Amino acid sequence: MRKLSIIAIALFMQTISAQVNRFVYQVTMKPEAANKNDIKTENAYLDISSEKSLFYSENRLKRDSIIQSNVQNGGMRGFNREQMEGVRSNINYTVEKDKANQKTYFKDRLGRDMYSYEEERPLNWKISSETTKIGDYKVQKAETDFAGRKWTAWFTTDLPYQDGPYKFGGLPGLIVKIEDSQGDYSFDLMKNYKIEEFPTLSQFGNTLKVKRTDFVKQQEKFKADPMAFMTQGGSGRPGGIGGLMRIGGVRQGGGSGGGNQNPADMRKMMEERIKEEAKKNTNPIELQ
Fold this sequence. Notes:
The protein is built from six helices and 14 strands. By secondary structure, the chain is an alpha+beta fold.
């Protein structure tokens, strides 16, 4: 009986440690430098296990679900463009932190490919003795300079995690709130709950592992001429949007019945959207 009790406890502890804890942050952004009154707000998830954490947009999961549903129901012919508009996101990247190796990996899409790099810039925190309370948590103040911005964070030791949203972490507790000195970006913890496992995020195109400096160069190329970037496949290799993006073997179109649209019209529509999005992303979270 004693052996059975020990086994039961061990299995219970294994189940608990295998669970993923989801922290929901409200992300407030001012992505357009010329129009700071244009404030974007959306939720993002920080999923944490004993091995890693993953930060990504809530709308990413919703968008994946819509696409998957359409693919399972015969492709994109009945694709509802308005439905996808409702889950558009300003957080198109993911940030994964490997706890065992103390590594942080950033992924973002440029054109038709996903680019991935390891973040090698350390976060040097200055921890203050100042404390306050945010919601149910007693929090302590810390400051750091990162990627051209000065950040103020409030972390709590009430929760057994040393992590935070985006690339932030390394404090002796979980970051409950963090904001840059200009008030352009802020992350506020709203709630948390447990989930069974990390979600599988859909990914289209190739994943290119690069250095951060190379990613920045490719990003500048994309901003300067997104259509040329996509036509050349970013790194100079041929390919791109001539054949349009394919999802589940079906060309991705615009509105309902998009698969029957004229390819030239679809290309023009895509070009206009990409240019418009590039114009509105002139105040990125990383300035350097």
